[in-house]
Design goal:
Elements (H helix, E strand, L loop, with lengths): L5 H9 L14 E5 L7 H10 L5 E5 L2 H9 L7 E4 L4 H7 L2 E4 L7 H13 L4 E4 L1 H6 L9 E3 L3 H10 L13 E4 L3 E6 L2 E8 L10 H13 L4 H23 L5 H18 L1
Parallel strand pairs: 1-2, 1-4, 2-3, 4-5, 5-6, 6-7
Antiparallel strand pairs: 7-8, 8-9
Helix pairs in contact: 1-9, 2-8, 8-9, 9-10
C-alpha cells in the first residue's frame, strides 16, 4: 500500500470491516438487476464478487438466467433469486441497486431502467453496461454512479456535452474504465486516475466484476471512495494473477482473487 496516493489511502480508510456483534444484513444488502437471454454470465460475475463482500445479495434477471443461477446454487448460498415482478419490494430493502450487467439494449431495458430510476431517484444506484446505454441522463443524481468504458462515454457525450471527460460536469459520480481508470465526482472536471492492470484484463467480464465490487462497497461507504477502492482492487487483483499465470486468466479467476487482494490491502493500510 506504500505506492498509494494520498486520496487512495483516504479511500481505503473508509472501508470498514464487519462488526463481530453485527447481525445478518447490517453489513450491506445489494440488489442486482441484470442479465438477458443473450448475455448469461455478466450478471453472475457481478453477483459472485458482491456475495463475498456484503451480507446479502438479491438477484433479479430473466427467467432463463434465474433458472441458471438456481441450478448453480451450490456456489451461491448467500443470496435470494427473485422474479422481476418482485423487484420493487427488494429495491426498498436494499442499500444499493446495481442495474445493467448483461442487460441487452432493448426497448424493455429502456422502459425498466428509466421507470425505476425515476420512481426511486433517492436510492443509491450503480448503473452499468446495457442499462447505462439505455438510460435517460436527465434522471441522474449525485447518489448515482455510472461505470462507462470509453465507447459508452462517447455515447453519453453525444447525449450531453456534460459527459466530456476533458471537462466533466455531470450530476453523478463516474468511474470511466480503461487502461487508466478515471473517477469523476459530480460537477468536478478534475478526475482522479487509478493506474494498473495488464493485458489479461481485456477479457470479457472484468467490467462486470468491477461493477459488482463497486456496488458492494457502496452499500457501506461513500460513492467516491467506493469507486476508488473498487478500481484499485480490481486492477491489483489482475496484477497478482498476472504474476502467477501471465495473461491467462478470466473473469471467474478475478472474482476468486479479489477477496484476498482486498483483505491484504486493508491490513496494510
Amino acid at each position: 500500500m506504500s505506492n498509494l496516493t494520498p486520496i487512495l489511502k483516504t479511500a481505503f480508510s473508509e472501508i470498514t470491516l464487519a462488526d463481530a456483534k453485527s447481525h445478518k444484513g447490517q453489513n450491506g444488502k445489494l440488489l442486482i438487476i441484470g442479465g438477458s437471454d443473450l448475455f448469461h454470465a455478466a450478471s453472475k460475475w457481478s453477483l459472485d464478487v458482491a456475495s463475498k463482500i456484503v451480507d446479502m445479495v438479491f438477484y433479479a434477471s430473466t427467467p432463463s438466467n434465474n433458472k441458471l443461477i438456481k441450478e448453480a446454487k451450490e456456489k451461491f448460498w448467500n443470496g435470494i433469486v427473485i422474479e422481476r415482478k418482485q423487484i420493487e419490494n427488494y429495491i426498498q430493502e436494499a442499500d444499493v441497486v446495481l442495474i445493467g450487467p448483461g442487460m441487452d439494449r432493448s426497448f424493455y431495458t429502456k422502459l425498466l431502467v428509466n421507470k425505476l430510476l425515476k420512481k426511486y431517484a433517492d436510492k443509491k444506484w450503480v448503473i452499468d453496461a446495457g442499462a447505462l446505454q439505455m438510460l435517460d441522463i436527465k434522471l441522474l443524481k449525485q447518489n448515482h454512479v455510472i461505470t462507462p468504458h470509453h465507447q459508452e462515454m462517447d455515447l453519453l457525450k453525444n447525449k450531453s456535452e456534460l459527459f466530456d471527460e476533458q471537462n466533466y460536469q455531470a450530476n453523478c459520480y463516474c468511474l470511466l474504465k480503461g487502461p487508466i481508470d478515471k473517477v469523476f465526482s459530480p460537477q468536478n472536471p478534475q478526475a482522479v486516475e487509478v493506474k494498473g492492470g495488464n493485458a489479461g484484463m481485456t477479457k470479457g467480464g472484468t467490467g462486470d466484476v468491477l461493477a459488482g465490487l463497486l456496488a458492494a462497497l457502496y452499500c457501506k461507504s461513500s460513492a467516491l471512495n467506493s469507486c476508488l477502492v473498487a478500481s484499485y482492487i480490481n486492477k491489483k487483483a489482475g496484477e497478482e494473477l498476472y504474476l502467477k499465470q501471465g495473461p491467462y486468466f478470466n473473469s471467474s479467476d478475478l472474482v476468486e482473487m479479489i477477496p484476498a487482494t482486498l483483505w491484504q490491502a486493508l491490513q496494510n493500510n
